[in-house]
Design a protein that fits this description.
alpha+beta, five-stranded mixed β-sheet, 6 helices, A_A_dipeptidase
Length: 227
């Protein structure tokens, strides 16, 4: 091949391949979940103002969910599992940049900002959010294999009633609580069993929060933005 031909081939490859790479997360080993799951719905709360802080969170530049490749693959198996019962997944959060966790800590340290108290933590004061472990220096989400989610009806997209909304801080959101109805308990258990079958473990204080047991980066907290 001539030098001119080789240069043309290289240029063509760059033009074709670059857009594909541009739609990949900034960190190797991570994927956009909407490129893996087929039927999931998304409500990326921290990319907008509909969350317990009341404003977009640092690091969420786009309304997309990122997970490690391993966690995304396991979640795809969960998706197929629940589809057999006419259900689909609805995802609230996945990978969370460390700068977002820092944002939460600054917010929780400001006693004057209680805009969202009535909706998300009516029975708690802000110091309790630290004491009870809802807000911490680090989050498992920043390791990339933790996901916040619920179940919806496949045909309508209607969320199953879990007894408390996503990110509600309090005992009613705990697994095993007696504060929810029998049907709400069953709905939570449907999600829990599906996640357990495919390698995820629950967090006792939040019915929506699951982490891949065999997470690939158990000691690493990432900070690349969601973009």
């Amino acid at each position: 091949m001539s030098r001119t031909g080789a240069q043309f081939t290289l240029l063509l490859c760059l033009l074709i391949c670059q857009p594909l790479r541009a739609d990949q997360p900034a960190q190797d080993g991570f994927v956009y979940l909407d490129q893996i799951l087929k039927s999931a719905r998304y409500d990326v709360r921290y990319a907008g103002a509909d969350n317990f802080v009341g404003e977009p969170i640092d690091g969420y530049q786009k309304s997309r969910i990122i997970l490690t490749r391993e966690a995304a693959s396991a979640l795809a198996a969960v998706e197929k599992d629940v589809a057999l019962s006419g259900l689909a997944l609805k995802i609230f959060d996945g990978y969370r940049p460390q700068r977002a966790v820092d944002n939460f800590r600054r917010w929780a340290s400001d006693p004057q900002d209680i805009r969202q108290k009535a909706r998300y933590y009516p029975q708690l004061d802000k110091p309790a959010l630290f004491r009870d472990g809802y807000i911490a220096k680090h989050s498992g989400h920043s390791r990339g294999s933790t996901v916040d989610l619920t179940l919806v009806e496949s045909k309508t997209g209607e969320e199953l009633d879990m007894g408390s909304p996503f990110d509600f801080f309090g005992p009613i959101s705990h697994h095993g609580t007696a504060l929810v109805s029998v049907q709400q308990t069953r709905n939570r258990e449907t999600l829990r069993q599906a996640m357990l079958r495919h390698g995820f473990e629950p967090y006792s204080a939040e019915w929506w929060h699951y982490t891949l047991k065999a997470e690939p980066y158990p000691q690493t907290y990432f900070d690349f933005p969601v973009q």
